[in-house]
Amino acid sequence: MGRLEELQERVVRCKKCPRLVAWRAKVAREKTKRFADWQYWGKPNPGFGDPKARLVLVGLAPAAHGGNRTGRMFTGDRSGDWLYRSLFKFGFANQPISFSREDGLELLDCYITATCRCAPPKNRLLPSEIRNCRPFLLEELRLLRNVRVLVGLGKVGFDAALNAAQEHGWTSFRRKPRFAHGTEYQLTEKLTLIASFHPSQQNTFTGRLTEPMLDSIFKRARTLIKNAPSQP
Question: Is 76 within the bounds of a domain?
Fold first, then answer.
């Protein structure tokens, strides 16, 4: 077993945040009517994807009836429908949809992780919960040695990616970079951070995020990866 797989197993066993442990179990036990026949995952979601990925996405947290049900981030919810469709268009996924861990989805040159690995009530994390989960993200980014583009999905994901890069000593800013869809920051000669609105229903249903807007993020990521300096 590799070190990244060992980390993923540790994530699944984590019980550091009592509020999140109680909530994820409650949701898994009570379910929702449309998924009454499902056996919910009800545990933290590990990151997943290509260990040699040059593109890494950092989201918020699993959805209560998405990742908390299926055991895989952005799988089985509307956000994932948008995300995987866009990743597929630009060659970062082998199919445009994901509904379970056994659906055949493979990420290509891409890895998906999150600020926090457990579904939070009302999709809102406490600062202490973000701190508790941060070591997992720091270790993932250390183990994913080929990363050229980080995409922060939503302000929380963007801040988590930026803070992790700063803790690793990859960058420093006198002023904190501003979050706005499509903005990008050169962290090192070989690493770029891109901000994207999160493909949540709150953004997609209101038109704040459109499909062309999301596609532009991964089109840009593909260009940056193509033109990135090679490994030493």
Answer: yes
